[in-house]
Amino acid sequence: MSQAARGWRTPLVILACGTVVLLLSFGTRTSFGIFLAPVSDDLGWGREVFALAIAVQNLVWGLSQPIAGAIADRHGSGRVIAVGGLFYVAGLYLMSGVATPADLTVSAGIMIGVAMSGTSFPVVLAVIGRGVPASRRSLYLGLAAAGGSSGQLAVVPLGQVLLQAYGWATALVLLAAICLVMVPLAAALAGRASAETLREGSQSLRQAVREAGAHGGFWFLNAGFFVCGFHVMFIATHLPAYIIDKGADPALGATALALIGLGNIAGSYLAGVLGGRMSKKYLLSGLYLARSIVITAFVLAPVSDLSIMAFALGIGVLWLSTVPLTSGLVAQIFGVRYLATLFGLVFFSHQLGAFLGVWLGGYVYDTTGSYDAVWWTAVALGLVAAACHWPINERPVARLAAAAD
Q: Which among 35, 133, 269, 333 has the fewest CB atoms less than 10 Å away?
C-alpha cells in the first residue's frame, strides 16, 4: 500500500488502533471467568449453564469467523470491526439482565460470539499483516498480539473491581459502555490490498481455500490450534472457580487471570520477534510441549498463592504466543491476500477446541465435583499438538514462489 493510497492510515496508526480493539475485545472476553461463580450462585444455576453459554460463544465465534474474514478480505475490515463492536456492546448489555439459561445463551453465547468474529485476531491481524513489509510482519503481529493481550491485564482487574463494587449486572453494563470505543476505531482499520498482495496474482477466494485445503500443513495447523483453544478457554473460564474450590481468596482468580495477561504480553512479543528469525513450526512445537509441562507441574504441586501465581505467569508466556506464529505461518505459506479468511478457517478449529474445553470443564465438574480429568486431558492434547507441527512444510506454495521470481 503506497503512502498516497493509505493517507493517514499508516502502519503505526493501524497497529495502534488495531491493538486497542484487540485489547478491549480480548480483555472483556477473558473477564467472563470471574462472572461464572457470582452469576451461577445468584441465579441458582449449576456451573454447566454458564459454561455452556461461553462454549456456545466460542462455537458461534468459530462458525462466523471465516465469514467475517471473507467479508473483510473482499470489502475491508473497517465495517466488519464496527459491526462486531456494536454486537459486543449489545451482547454485554443484554447479558446484564438475563433471567433464564436461554437468555444467557443468546446474549453471552450467540451475540458476543458473532461480535468476537469481527473484533478479534483473524480480522485485525490481517489488516496489520497487509500493511507492513514481509520482513517486519512477524514483529508487527507479535506487537499487536502482545498489546491485545494486555487487555487481560487491564480489563480483568477492572471487571473484578466493578463486580465487587456494583454487582455483576451493573459491571456488565459498564463494560459494555467501555467496549463502545471499538466502533470509532474501526475507521483506521479499513485495510486495502497492498502492493505485495497484488503481486500474489489473481487468485480467487475459492481457489485460495482449495489450495489451503490441499496442503497438509494447513490441517496440522488446524489440529494444533484446536488444542490451543481447548487450553486457553478451559483455563480462562474455570481457573477462578478452581481457585475458589481450593480455598483461596476469590480475588486471587482475577489476579491469576491478570498475571496470565502479563505473561502473555511478554510471550506474544517474544514469539513475534523469534518468528521472524527462526522456524515458526518448531517454535510452535516447543510452545505446546511447554504448556503440557507447566500444567502438569501445577496439577501435581500443592495449591498455594505462590503456585497459582507461578502457574499464571508460566502459562501466560505460552498463552497467545501461538497467534503471531500461527497467523504468520499461514501468511508465509499462502500469502496475505486472503489471510483473514484462511486464518479464520484455522481459528474455527481453535473455537471447536474452545467449545470442548469450556463445556467439558463444566460438565466434568458438575458430574464428578473435580476438574482433574480435564487438566490431564489438556496435558495429553498439548503433547499431540507439539507433534502435529513438526512435519509442516513451511515453504511458500509454488504460486508464491513463482510470483517472487
A: 133
Q: End-to-end CA distance of the chain, in Å?
A: 21
Q: Which residues lie below 8 Å from residue 227, measured CB to CB, with a gap of 6+?
A: 288, 353, 381, 382, 384, 385
Angle at 237 between CA 234 and CA 240, to 5 degrees: 115
Residue 45 has phi, psi (to 5 degrees) of -105, 155
CB-based contact 112:95 (threshold 8 Å) = yes
Dist CA 257 CA 240 (whole Å): 8
Q: Is 3-404 assigned to CATH 1.20.1250.20?
A: yes
d(CA 122, CA 382): 22
Alpha-carbon distance of 215 to 161, in angstroms, equals 48
User: pLDDT digits over 66-120, tens only?
Assistant: 898 888 887 778 889 999 999 999 999 999 999 999 999 999 999 999 999 999 8
Q: How many whole angstroms separate alpha carbon 365 and alpha carbon 40?
A: 14
* The three three-digit cell numbers of residue 234, written as one number: 478451559
Nearest to 293 by CA among 231, 358, 371: 231
For cell 500461527, what's the residue? 326
C-beta of residue 155 within 8 angstroms of C-beta of residue 52? no
Distance set, CA 350 to CA 112, 147, 173, 280, 354 (Å) = 17, 21, 28, 18, 6
Grid coordinates representing 376 are 490431564
Nearest to 248 by CA among 76, 26, 37, 93: 37
Closest CA relative to residue 50, chosen from 69, 32, 26: 32
CA distance linking residue 297 with residue 378, whole number of Å: 13
The set of cell numbers assigned to 136 is: 517486519
Cα distances (Å, whole numbers) of residue 99 to 42, 75, 105: 10, 39, 11
The span from the CA of 359 to the CA of 105, in Å, is: 13
Return d(Cα 72, Cα 404) in angstroms, integer: 25
DSSP code string of 326-368? HHHHHHHHH-STTHHHHHHHHHHHHHHHHHHHHHHHHHHHHHH
Tell me the C-alpha distance between 369 and 390, whole Å.
37
CB neighbours (10 Å) of residue 339? 28
Cβ neighbour number for residue 306 with a 10 Å cutoff? 10
